[in-house]
Amino acid sequence: MIIMPKSKAGKWSFALAAAALVVFIVSRIGLAAGMHPEIESPAVTAFNWNLVIMVSFLFCLAAAVSGLAGIIRNKERSVVVFVVTIGGFLIILSLIGIRLNLYLNPHEAHKRLPGR
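and the corresponding structure tokens:
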């Protein structure tokens, strides 16, 4: 059983997944710092953290596509690439599900918003 990827596409998949994880952790730390009442830094409060989270999701999607390309083209059989590919496609399915829920039930989604 091979743990780490051997092909170029598999290595790209692993690198993009690692970058997505780092960006997501940094965005969570930034959001937590922005919500802290004693920190009133304009750089923390005015920064659009949603954009950073979307970049993290785009990295995940690119990692999944690169992993799938490595599996199909290069016969990549490493555990890391399979986990990254499956995780990326689960993220795609969850984003589609969230969009469909907001599209099909806009009033129900509005009721679940915090502060309402």
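(Above: one complete record from the training split.) The longest helix spans residues 8-35.
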